[in-house]
Design brief:
CATH class of the domain at 1-76 and 188-238 in chain B: Alpha Beta
Radius of gyration of chain B: 18 Å
Radius of gyration of chain A: 21 Å
CATH architecture of the domain at 1-76 and 188-238 in chain B: 3-Layer(aba) Sandwich
Number of strands of chain B: 10
Structural class of chain B: alpha/beta
Strand content of chain A: under 5%
CATH superfamily of the domain at 1-76 and 188-238 in chain B: P-loop containing nucleotide triphosphate hydrolases
Low-confidence stretches of chain B: none
Distance between the termini of chain A: 44 Å
Shape of chain B: globular
Mean pLDDT of chain B: 88
Oligomer: heterodimer
Helix content of chain B: 25-40%
Low-confidence stretches of chain A: none
Chain lengths: 261, 238
Amino acid sequence: MTRALLPLTLLGRAALGMLRRIGSVTLFFLNAVIRFPATLRYPRELARAFLQIGWLSLPVVGLTAVFTGAALALQIYAGGSRISAEAVVPQIVAIGIVRELGPVMVGLMIAARVTSSIAAELATMKVSEQVDALTTLSTDPMTYLTAPRVLAGLVTVPILVGLGDILGLFGGFVVATQGLGFNGPSYVTTSWNFLDPVDIVLSLTKGAVFGGIAVTLACHAGLNAGRGAQGVGLATKSAVQAAAILVLAANVALTGLFFGQ
Amino acid sequence: MIELQHISKSFGTKEVLDDISLALDSGTSLAILGRSGTGKSVLTRIILGLITPDAGRILIDGQPMTRRVRRAFLEQTGVLFQASALFDSLTVWENVAFRLRNGRARVGRTEARERAEVALGRVGLEPRVADLFPSDLSGGMQKRVGLARAIIGTPKYLFFDEPNSGLDPVTSTDIDALIRELVTDLGATAITITHDMASIRTIADEVLLLDAARARWHGRVSDLASADDPLLARFLAR
């Protein structure tokens, strides 16, 4: 009987563990949000977070977006030619980049670049007692370390997504006009007219949610890291994995919320 | 005065501290001695509020350690961590002046830097190191910077976690002498975790020996030689 129930027991334990972690991360996020006003006491940390998450992510996000837009234009053209629908390249590239690929690619790039660096930095601070040192210096680590980063994630990632969308569209434009024979002004007009304001709202909303997820998970994993180098490695790995999966899951949820029947 | 009453702490099934009580008068320097894993660090982390005990309570100047008392206590406390725990992204002077720049009563950048350089001078470091980063310094220099950070607000309480670990004997002796001098000058109540008997003789007035999660011996440094405890005798024989 006990052996027969073992799979169910393990499944239940895993589910409870996951729920516990979701609850812990949610409370952690709320704890960071209520400290946003207090984090203005640390303008330097705030500026550093905006620089680290926003500005320094720009090259990788920009290049990813340009190449994704270019590849998408080629794929749509090749696929469309099978049904004599090559002309839909501007529309599909526009909707594909703005609604889906722009925010998702930026979200995954942020999960890879920012989540890993924040988780590793905070985990190293934790294992080298720098976080304890902050506490003994009468400074709340949540206000000093977490709140500026979460705020920067919520603000800068939508901006990165907006820029990624523009650069992705530009990548598609370059390929379509230089390699596939599309007329430039006509391509831009068709793309622009096809986009709906709700597409842009969805894209930027996804950016804010993905930024919040990536940075919150990074800070949570870093500040709860185990001991030693292994603790730093585990914290970084688990944060990046969780951020990538949650970004993709949140993408489905948000798309369903905006466009579900 | 720091008073511990019946402090106990376990991690899972491992009992680390069992019913520890202690009263430390103001201006006294206590060394906590014991083998590795006997709860020395846990005890000091409990006093600093970094770990919550399972049982018992802490009184600071007769007041139970509430959130308000703890905040006031930490504002008057300097800590030297085992690995110095300097902030990598800040320069030496910014590390030393951290409390002044980020504490409740904020001090301007110029004044903070001046006071940081004075604190660096007190621990034997020249002003030229002020603009370096912690990674540019040797282990001994990092300890001195950590000491400067601990003493900058003229603290009433000082904690030193294995101040000599990783240091050569000469630097170690210098750090001990410095700690004794600073504790005496500030009139602070100090708690030091150490395994080193030579260090204890220099910096401490009292010794607490922890073993098997219990307080095994507590007395004055001058009484160490006459103490009838086999474990203490083994430490003294080193």
